[in-house]
Amino acid sequence: MADNFYDKVAKKFGDYQTTAKHTDVFPQGNPEEIFKQKLIELSDKEKIALDVGCADGRFTLSVSSYFKKIIAIDISKGMLDAAISSQTEQGISNVSFEYQSVRNMPYNGASFDIVYNRRGPPDFPQFFRVLKSGGYYLEIRIGEKDTQELKEVFGRGQGYGQWSESALKKDKMGLDEAGFKAIFGQEFFYSEFYLTFNDLGLFLQGVPIFEDYDPHKDNAYLTKYAQKYQADRGIELKRHRVVTISKKP
After folding, report:
1. Taking the model in full, what pTM does it have?
2. Closest Cα partner for 156 from 213, 196, 110?
3. Count of CA atoms in the C-beta half-sphere (13 A) of 194
């Protein structure tokens, strides 16, 4: 299960980050930075936001000054512990980290001005319910073609074989059915280049591409992939992200 996976990551690395060395090439711009900028553009010192799947809280703490208050939820206690520790170190008081599942959020209807979701679980009807009229839902999610070549070599992985099921199209349909009005939707394709074989292996231990990734058992698969996708910049890993913005009428 994903929650247990992230608890293991938090226990091993202390938070959601590893020390894997890599460089990025963004032909269409960095989707994470674009998502963050669009969130800041919609922010306001009087607005209350909900962060769905906050993980170690780094992102939410980085945008906390733009909001009156942020409630950040996650189902990994290990990640929440890391988030609260960072919050204490930074002396930030307008963020509340809470152990909550998106499927059973206890918040009243029309509680938030903004709901944002960075690769967390989607539940569009729930997000619609807790948003105020005129509120916005922002999401950055993993696209269907993310690390496709890696998963093909391993013969398994998150979303394995679902290459033709458009994440953007699926989200647009789900958002529309929930009652949202689409404001923005874009796909981003980019590449990460890992400096060494060990850097790529370390990265795979900290993300759920393979929740059962084992450095020893999967060594042959990773070796095959590294040999096939070695480039001048390093071992290439192709990524795919989808950014959407929707509004509750």
Report:
1. 0.91
2. 213
3. 23
pLDDT at 14 (0 to 100) = 47
Helix (H) or strand (E) holding 173: helix 167-178
Q: What residues pair up with 131 in beta bridges, in sequence order?
A: 112
Range of the domain at 16: 2-247
Rounded to whole angstroms, the Cα distance separating 102 from 120 reads: 9
pLDDT digits (tens, 9 = 90+) for 8-66: 544 444 444 557 899 999 999 999 999 999 999 999 999 999 999 999 999 999 999 99
Structure tokens at 109: 């209807």
Quote the CA–CA distance of 143 and 124 in Å, as a whole number.
17
For residue 111, the one-letter residue type is S
Greater pLDDT, 12 or 179 = 179
Picking from 232, 233, 214, the residue whose alpha carbon sits closest to that of residue 222 is 214
Cα–Cα dist 102/123, whole Å: 7
Number of domains composing the chain = 1
pLDDT score for 18: 57
pLDDT-based confidence at residue 104 (cuts at 50, 70, 90)? confident
Instruction: List all residues 6 or more positions away from 237 whose beta carbon is below 8 Å from its beta carbon.
Output: 22, 147, 150, 191, 192, 193, 194, 200, 229
How many Cα atoms occupy the beta-carbon half-sphere of 133 within 13 Å? 1
229 is written with which tokens?
């996708």
Domain CATH number, residue 31: 3.40.50.150
What is residue 218's three-state secondary structure?
A: coil
Look up tokens 């938070």; give the residue. 15
CB 148 within 8 A of CB 249: no
